[in-house]
Amino acid sequence: MWPRKRSAAVCSRCHQPAPGYDQLPERRFEFIPFWGFFVFLLYAMRRVDCRRCDAVVVEEVPWGDGKRTLTRAYMLFPARWARRLSWKETAEAFRTSWEKVFDAGEHVVTWGLERRILGQIDSIGVDEIQYAKGHKYLTLVYQIDIGITRPLWVGKERTIESFQGFFTAMGKNVISKIAFVCVGTLSETHPRKLFRGPPYPRPLPHRCKYEQGTR
Ligand SMILES: [Zn+2]
Description:
The protein has six helices and eight strands; from the N terminus they run βββαααβββααβαβ. By secondary structure, the chain is α/β, with parallel strands linked by helices. It folds into three domains: 55 residues, no CATH class; 45 residues, no CATH class; 87 residues, 2-Layer Sandwich (Nucleotidyltransferase, domain 5), CATH 3.30.420. The chain starts with 19 loop residues before the first strand and ends in a 6-residue tail after the last strand. Bound molecules: zinc ion. The site of zinc ion (ZN) has 9 residues, from loops. The site of zinc ion has 9 residues, from loops.
């Protein structure tokens, strides 16, 4: 990809056009794979000499986000798929690594949290997933209410300690209204343990079991 001729680069700090400064070496942006083929966008980012910011700043591009190698479209794409598919299927379908799905999930969840679009959550699904050839685990939490299934939180590892991050991220107000917890294949993080003691203020919610990928 090349910048349009005579198009001014946009400062990524103040989001305004600014005079050019130089061009960085070409880098790869991972895009949504088509028919099983990896797709990369190649682009040499320009830097601007922004008078407003009084700094040399890398330009803002519509497909990328800072230092991430995944394009923005790709980051949103798996997150959308994950509403319908399990994360495992998502990663297999996208042939991407769990680190990247983790990053994308975290990014989208953060984006959502910043805009406070959580609303009331009645039911959550908690799942663990192996990655890095089964040597590492992630804890995944989805909202599984009727009409809305979406990833809520991704935690590194599958420990009680890491799960505390879910409570912190959601906040007491949201957590206290959760009535159902559906558990996939968690071995260590049994819901009885997950919801014991602070910061969870109520007794253990109802539990159900579900088969992975049947939602
Ligand atoms: Zn600027």
